[in-house]
Amino acid sequence: MCLSDTFRRQSGVRLLPPMLYKAPANPGPIRVKKKPEVTLDPENWAELRALGHRMLDDMIDYIEHIRERPVWRPIPQEVRDRFRADLPHGPSDLAEVYEEFERFVVPYAAGNVHPGFMGWVHGGGTPVGMLAEMLAAGLNANLGGRDHVPVEIERQIVEWARQMFEFPQGSSGLFVTGTSLANFIAILVARTAALGKEVRKRGVARDGAKLRAYTSAAAHRCIPLAMDLCGFGSGALRMVPTDGRCRIDLAALREAIEEDRANGLEPFLVIGTAGTVDAGSVDDLDALATLCKRENLRFHVDGAFGALLVLSPELKPLVKGIEKADSIAFDFHKWGQVPYDAGFLLVRDGELHRETFITPAAYLRPGAKGLAAGSPWFSDYGPDLSRGFRALKTWFTLKTFGTDRMGEVIARTCWLARHLEARVRAEPRLELLTPAQLNIVCFRYGSDDRVNAKILVDLHESGIAAPSTTTIGGKLAIRAAFVNHRTQTSDVDALVDAVLRLGPLAEEEFRTP
Ligand SMILES: *Cc1c(COP(=O)(O)O)cnc(C)c1O
Asked: In whole angstroms, what is the distance from residue 76 CA to residue 65 CA?
């Protein structure tokens, strides 16, 4: 008996016998009246060219003279309101649109191009990356697949990343928006490793319920989010306590794994961090690799910014063991100075990576020859089908500067953190909350959270420097992270001097009369 019979009997609904159903009449092709030719190319190429040259000059001027501007400034309401306009049905003059951009967008950017930007972990970008981005947009390449050299350039970056991290031949990699997405993909690959590719059909409910992953309490919030998105739930992730240097406590990790096993759970994945957001700590990756090998667990590294320490011969020992990971997520847009966005994932077992995503479809059948060739396609390694040409700005950046110079920039930003630490230690009114481990220092003025929160807002509004805040040991901290290659010692000094100047004013505000 078919389902509909049962349904009819139970519900009392009378269905017409199938032969009485009539397919709707074919409405035929949509009728469109003959149209005049229409294109979005300019009528006057010479005008466009002149304006384009001006835009380029203006933007190069902007970067060259960025120091003369405030890092950031508050957005006036009238400016905000401009961007709540109605949908434009008619055209506007490009020159006018550009003028709007110059007047109302450029002055109110976040400021991470500016050397005084020290908040969160933001890259500074380079004019080289900007130019490459323009070229990429001109080609309008879609790197989902097919046979064209832009795809070869992304393959070249995969190969360079493989060499950077001493991964074996057969490793795979791809550009994604950022490390958040790269971590998510890495956990999906770990899911395939643990449950086989059948999990893609069955889902995790049956076989995945007992799987457990481990990371440190200082890990980025995108890790629990990724566990949630993968269907395991963030509850399947244990956030292991950290040691005195904000690194994962190895003894506590071993205990957690044992305890879970004793309770019938199945540990499958450890995620180490190279460069925590709060303090710039690096987990003992070598020890984690050894532990994972012994316990037969997968080992992923969130190296959003810290992974690129491999480019500095002096600092590379800090991430020893990263070369043993099963996968590494990192960003070229942070310490790599490539303009946003340029996240990257490198996976040791390229086949496993591909099995996690490959989904054949008739309209995407790769060819042996012709434009549809060029297998394997990048769209078989992640959730995206259409993909931009992030590889080009990264290729230009790596080739133009060379990795040695990029390593020097990284080492230099770590030195700036040491300089800040020394200045904080020398000032009795400042308290050092985390010493410079890499490029990050947390400190505060006096002992009142409210005063420090006020100093931070005043600093931002002054346009002198833009650090961010975090909480260290229950105390509100001013957190300075040096990522921008333009930042100099004088910018660090300007930050400290401004905090010392704004501190007493902020204290005044909270003094009870
Ligand atoms: C920045 C960061 C992330 C997130 O990377 P996005 O590129 O912003 O997605 C993850 N982990 C760490 C340690 C980070 O610093």
From this structure: 23
Range of the domain at 493: 401-510
Q: Last residue of some domain: 364, 388, 412?
A: 388
Alpha-carbon span 9 to 6, nearest angstrom = 5
Instruction: Print the SS3 string covering 369-395.
Output: CCCCCCCCCHHHHCCCCCCCCHHHHHH
Q: Could you give the CA distance from residue 258 to residue 294 in angstroms, rounded to a whole number?
A: 13
Does some domain include residue 247? yes
Q: Which atom of ligand 1 is nearest to the CA of 273?
A: 13
256 is a domain residue: yes
d(CA 255, ligand 1 centre) in Å: 28
Q: Ligand 1: distance of its center to the CA of 498 in Å?
A: 28
Q: Which sign, positive or negative, has the C-alpha torsion 31, 36, 37, 39?
A: negative
- Tell me if 266 is assigned to some domain: yes
Q: How confident is the model at residue 7 (pLDDT cuts 50, 70, 90)?
A: very low
Specify the ligand 1 atom closest to the Cα of 181: 9
Distance 5 CA to ligand 1 centre (A): 55
Taking only the tens place, the pLDDT of each residue in 414-424 is 999 999 999 99
Looking at the 3D structure of the chain, how many domains does it have?
Answer: 3
